[in-house]
Amino acid sequence: MSRPLVPGSPDRQDPELSTRQREVLVALVALHGASARPVSSDALSHTGGVRGSAAGIRQVLAELEELGLLTRGHASSGRVPTGSGYAWHIRNQLEPVALADDALREMDRRLRRSAHDVEQLLHEASRLLSALTLQLGLALAASLEHERLLGLELAAVEPQRALLVLTLEGGTVRTLKLELAHALDPAELAEVEPLLGERLTGLPLAEVRARLAADPELVRDTAVRLVTRAAMASWAEPGPQALFTSGAARIAAQPEFRDGPMLGSLLQVIENGPPLDRLMVGGIEGHPAVRISLDEADALTRCSLVSYPLTGAPRLAVGVLGPLRMDYARALAAVEAVGARIASYL
Q1: Which CATH entry fits the domain spanning 19-92: 3.40.30.10, 1.10.10.10, 3.40.50.1820, 1.20.1290.10?
Q2: Rounded to an integer, what is the distance from CA 26 to the centroid of its chain?
Q3: What pTM, to 2 d.p., does this model score?
Q4: Cα–Cα distance, 267 to 278 (Å, whole number)
Q5: What does the pLDDT look like over 137-151, one tens digit per residue?
C-alpha cells in the first residue's frame, strides 16, 4: 500500500548518496519532469548542467540504477526515476517553494467568495488546485454516517428552541438546531440529555438517525419525544460522499496518459471515488503529504497523490493527482495553502 511521504523526513532505508550521486539524481528528476522523456548522460551534461565526462556521468547513472532509484526501458535508452527514486528525492532533497503573492491574493478572493457554502467552496478548491499545478485538482467531503457518536449535549436557547451538539470520532462536531413543538424549560432538557446519551452513545451516526426515528424508548416520555421529533425534523438526509474534481483535460494531455484505454481506466477510478477518498483523508491533519505510484488500483500505478486532510475536519481533504514526474514542490505548496484557508473558514 502506498505510504504517505513527508519532505524533510528521510527514511532509515533510504540509501546514502554521495554528493555526486545527489547532483545527478536531482538534475535527472528535473529534466524528466520537464520533458517526460528518458534522460541520457549527454542531456545531463549539455542541458542539466552536470559537470564531468559522459562516461563519468554514465557510471553514476549505473550506480543509481543499481540502488533502485532509476530505471530504463532497454540497454541503449536513457533513464527515468523509479517510484523509489521519487520517494528518495521528496524525503531528502525537495526544496519548499512559495506561491507568488498575486496567486495567494487570487486564492483568498475566490475561496472567500465561496466560503458560505461548503460544497461550492470545495468545488472552487479543486478548480484552484488544478489551475495552480496544471494537474487534476481534488476536494473531498467524506460522509460522516459511519463515524461513532462519542457524546452529546442538549442546551436551551429559547423556550421552544434548543441545540443538540453531537461529538463524533476524530473530534468532528455536528450541531442540530431544534424547533420544539412545545416549550421546555432548562431543567426538563437536562433530564432528557442523559436519556438520549444512554440510547445513542457509541452508535454510528447512521444508527443514531435510525434510533431517533424508531426507538420506542425515546417516545414514552413527552419531553424526550419533543426533542427527538425536533431532531429528526432538523436533521437533513445524509448527502453522499462527494469527491470534487477539476482539470481532467489537463491530466489527459500529459504524455503518460495519452493512451486511450489507460486514460479511460484512470478517469473511471476518479469518477468512482475509491480508493482516492480513503487515501486523501489518511494522512496527518494539517500536513501535506505525497503518495508515490499508488498501488491500490492498476489505473493509479503511474500516478502520485499530494493530499492535505484539513485540521479540525478529519473527513475533509484537498489534493492533486498527477503523473510521477509532477512538480511536487509546487503541488505541496498549493494544497497546503488551499487546505489551510478552507480549514480557517470552516
Answers
A1: 1.10.10.10
A2: 26
A3: 0.74
A4: 17
A5: 999 987 667 778 899
